[in-house]
Design goal:
This protein has 384 residues and is an alpha/beta fold. It has two domains: 223 residues, Alpha-Beta Complex (Spore Coat Polysaccharide Biosynthesis Protein SpsA, Chain A), CATH 3.90.550; 151 residues, no CATH class. The protein contains 14 helices and nine strands. The strands form two sheets. A seven-stranded mixed β-sheet has the order 3-2-1-4-6-5-7, with helices on both faces. A two-stranded antiparallel sheet has the order 8-9. β1, α1 and β2 form a beta-alpha-beta unit. It is elongated.
Length: 384
């Protein structure tokens, strides 16, 4: 039978603090007359956590798949509430704030995030590295990449509309689950709100399950993989632009700056920038197309329609062939220089100024042609 609210707590050997968390949640539920359940998503506890939860009237869900994200995904699927409020069971969050989250949900918000930086962080509650580097930087990256109005991506106390979040198809298993929920909610255009939340020092005598560097990397990796513009497009365009400008200048004449002369050797390196940058930009289109075709990310249908209207294999092969032809013309020019020298020794600065762009154009053209064929493979309709 459905209730209004499920208070969901992931748990792995939390016997020292679980009772306090359940007690605070029960007090808030009773004081505000909320139709609610308390669900403990246990991830294989070997201490007394399960017994404590059951003795206090909480429902226990046994989750075999290991990981913070695995426990929460299973808990959300098995929750009976219309709304779900999730919070860590280490007594670092105040479950007395349940009414504030519920009020925001009933105003029409589909995801309500706690913000520890607004609500206050008790001394010693968050490691210095997390407080001044990890959380602010990763939250900034998330806002920059996805334009989501959330200032604390990793707050463990948050509430949401269960049906709306189930549609997001959350599937990460580790701590990056916190970022996945926010990012996919933003991509799906869910209505998101944020309220101040106080973070207290957790009551456990053992270290937390969080691994600062490993879990930080998992968060950053997730943000990058879900933002092909920042992972591929922008870096690739910078490399292409830089390579094209410098190579073009050096094609005309060597460049001397502060008694340092840049010539064909520099030109070779910056031509490499152009080649690498071009392929990285191609990765953007391929990854974006793949993700939209196989529904790995939500939204983007308009982008896909515009791309399909603009792209055709024939157009790509035609442009690629023109680029290859330009390279071949430069190659012929370099061959004629060698011919005029009667196939003898050449001045490197003279002939390489033609050879380097010739090779660059040929490589770029070949890249474009075969990438277009690969995109066409992705566009093939699957048989049903």
């Amino acid at each position: 039978m459905q209730c209004l609210l499920t208070v969901l707590m992931p748990c792995l050997n939390e016997e020292e603090t679980l009772a306090q968390c359940i007690d605070k949640a029960k007090m808030a539920i009773t004081a505000n007359n909320i139709d609610a359940e308390i669900l403990i998503a246990d991830n294989g506890s070997t201490d007394g956590s399960i017994e404590i939860a059951e003795s206090m009237g909480a429902r226990v869900l046994h989750v075999k798949d290991k990981g913070y994200g695995s426990a929460l995904c299973a808990g959300i699927k098995h929750a009976k509430g219309k709304y779900v409020i999730m919070g860590d069971s280490d007594d670092s969050y105040d479950f007395g704030d349940l009414p504030k989250f519920l009020e925001k949900l009933e105003e029409g918000n589909e995801l309500v995030m706690g913000n520890r930086f607004l609500g206050g962080i008790e001394p010693g509650a968050m490691p210095i590295l997390h407080k001044y580097l990890g959380n602010p930087v990763l939250s900034f990256v998330g806002r920059l990449f996805f334009d989501i109005p959330v200032n604390d991506f990793h707050c463990g106390l948050r509430a949401f509309d269960r049906d709306a979040v189930l549609k997001l198809d959350l599937n990460t298993t580790g701590m990056e689950f916190a970022s996945e929920m926010v990012v996919k909610a933003g991509l799906a255009k869910l209505k998101i709100a944020e309220i101040p939340t106080r973070l207290s020092k957790d009551g456990r005598s053992r270290p937390p399950h969080l691994n600062s560097w490993e879990d930080g990397w998992r968060h950053l990796r997730f943000l990058l993989l879900y933002s092909p513009k920042w992972l591929f497009l922008y870096p690739g365009l910078v490399l292409i632009l830089l390579g094209f400008i410098v190579s073009s200048v050096l094609y005309i004449n060597p460049l001397t700056i502060m008694n340092i002369t840049f010539d064909v050797h520099t030109m070779l390196y910056f031509s490499m920038f152009s080649v690498v940058g071009f392929q990285v930009v191609m990765f953007f289109f391929i990854s974006k197309l793949y993700a939209l075709k196989f529904r790995l990310i939500l939204g983007g249908e308009e982008w896909l329609q515009r791309f399909n209207r603009w792209f055709s294999l024939e157009k790509g092969v035609g442009i690629g062939s023109l680029i290859i032809t330009s390279g071949l013309i430069l190659a012929v020019r370099s061959f004629l220089i060698w011919t005029r020298a009667e196939y003898g020794d050449l001045v490197p600065g003279t002939v390489l100024r033609e050879v380097i762009p010739a090779v660059t154009f040929i490589i770029l053209g070949v890249q474009l042609v075969f990438n277009c064929f690969f995109v066409s493979v992705l566009n093939l309709k699957t048989l049903s």
